[in-house]
User: What shape does this take?
Amino acid sequence: MEQIKIAMQKLDRVISHRHRHPPMPFERFLNVLSQKPETVMRNVFQLFHDMIKSHVAEIKEDAADEHAAVYSVKYDCNRLFVENADHPFFADQLFAFRFIKQVESLKRGAQQNKIFIFEGPPGCGKSTFLNNLLMKIEEYTKTRAGLRYEAMWRLDQELLHRLTENESIPLYDTVMPLPGSPEARPCAEQEVDAPTDGLGAELLNERMPAAADPMAWNTEFIDIPCPSHDHPIVMIPKHYRRRFFDDLFQNDKFKWKLFTEKEYEWVFKEPACTICSSIYWALLHRLKSPLEVFKRLYARPYSFNRRMGEGISVYNPGDKPMRHNLMGNPMLQRRINFLLKDSNEVKYIFSRFAKTNNGIYALMDIKSNNIERLIELHNIISEGVHKVEDMEENVNSLFIALMNPEDKQNIQNLQSFYDRIEYIHIPYVLDLNTEVAIYRDIFGRHIDERFLPRVLHNFARVVIATRLNIRSDALLEWISDPKKYDRYCDANLQLLKMEIYTGHIPSWLTDEDRKNLTAKRRAKIIAEAATEGNKGFSGRDAIKIFNEFYSKYAREERLINMSMLCLFFTKVRPDLMASIPDRFLESLLAMYDYTILQEVKESLYDYNEAQIIRSLQNYIFAANFEIGTVESCRFTGDKLNITAEFFEDIEHRLLGENAGQKARLAFRKETQRAYTSKTLTQELMVAGLPLTETELFKSLHERCVFHLKEKVLDPFLENENFRQAIKDYGQEGFKSFDKRIRSDVTFLMDNLCTKCRYTEQGAKEICIYVIDNDLARKFAKAN
Assistant: This one.
């Protein structure tokens, strides 16, 4: 029992702390407003923006190298769509970029008179996206950061009863006795007759205890919540708000934003709902003082509750329309009538749209009953008002809908509605890292252990290739001759586009093409994503295909490799090849071969780095002198005999063994020009940099290391024991090889595991693959 008591006490403290936000008087609310104006003074669009920004992390790329990445800012949406979600939605950078830009426009005030339709093909995750988004904003409104307030009236029963007791009794009260009067008490229960005052029969023809005296329900006050969830500040008459806020706020940054920026335009233009306006004027008529009226105004937290339809209402196509659109609270209406002695002065009736005013109204797919709901929104979105019997109801909500491309025909007849629609495209995933993240989420992160590095991502590349357009005008404008990249890319440059969509610039691009990839070109390439992702393997298709592939090839004794991937699509499921671009698998395999060859060379590379640095410094210095001279290098102190052989030896390491004399001489002159025009005058003399940190040195060092790595495998390919030593690595037989081979193989294995994320088994398999397929000679011939 003691443990139960402790557990209940802790639960009480936690829940009480979370919900410790009772209604506060308007004057105290203004004090909170003046201290935290940007948090308290928010409509639904500003709240939505703040929620998104608080859940999405911005990762700014290094601006030093404009070619290092495609996106200046990347968005991590995991907190928004993945964390704590039953069904995660993985947003790639392409969609995240469009979504965040649209959200930023909401805060700037571009939200008026629009419905935001998220359009995408079946299986792209639209419903998952919206459900997770609504879940996060509902949670956000229950936190301190997402705290918002709505108006509530607290009427003093004794005071108002005393002020009105001398007024004449209206006709309604003479026909129907007031609750609590002797005439109303003989029966324990009676049916209320429906008056013809426009309240709606369904709201008043309800049975309620006649003996329930409104004065007996609460002897102090009654609370009347604003059914439209109006912000408390809009209770101030519009004509007086500007002067009021001028007096309330000091001349600071927020006050400037409030009076000048469009995002706060609603503060001065939005009227109070009809119910609150009628309460304000009824109280002013009786209390004679606006100050006394505002003492009856309170502010209470406004949190969303999707299940109850408060702040968030979501309609599926199969949800039938409500029989009655009118809503109200008959018991509260009777108490208001009793206090004000006039049943027609305040009509506490409203529509279902009031429940999502300053909230979110969402339609899941524009079909069936949701077509009618969208048509009904036409006038509401256009004018911002909705008719409730003879009253006008303000509607200022964030309207969201989901739509399949084929459902556009359902709104073709609404031509005048087109300019009210803002489309946001949700395609199939086009970012291979995001596609892989989906597989890991569904099948578990352990699947990586069953693949050789890069093979899992190559499966994602095959899937994404079916979703891309075959021709890319933006890429062809940039790279007019795709054939020069046959070793690394497909003829349609889809593999290159995937890298750019991921935010990565491949290293195999030439220096000229990297320089030509300007910001304008990058933007043009990324803009093509708006027309892609509507065809090919859907998200559900891709998961089914991956499940079949993984189930067939995942084995303990061997890792899944590229041969298995190609075999699956060409032999096991040849029907899928109709959706895959021609020769795409061949190009994918070629890019994979080139990439792993570079990894093996990188891992085997073991040249004396200090000697390379010294040679390059000597070369840069010697390029400024004629052949036949002898000079002491100012950077290394070495005495240099500058001959043709001196230049030839270093230039072959910089340009390759096949470089001719003419090419070497041109390169030498270009190096000397770069040294005198920039390296010496700007970086050495002005910036004070050492030669090894200049752009010229780094460029030469990169070239030198690249060409040295190209030849690093040659000595080992001639040695038949090298392949066997790799197979026996980690086994007893490995000790039988000579010390040099054991040292080289161990160095190779260690680097593959530490630098390239291979397991020992994977490192052995990839080395055998490189040797057996003779990749070194294959790509040497291509050069």
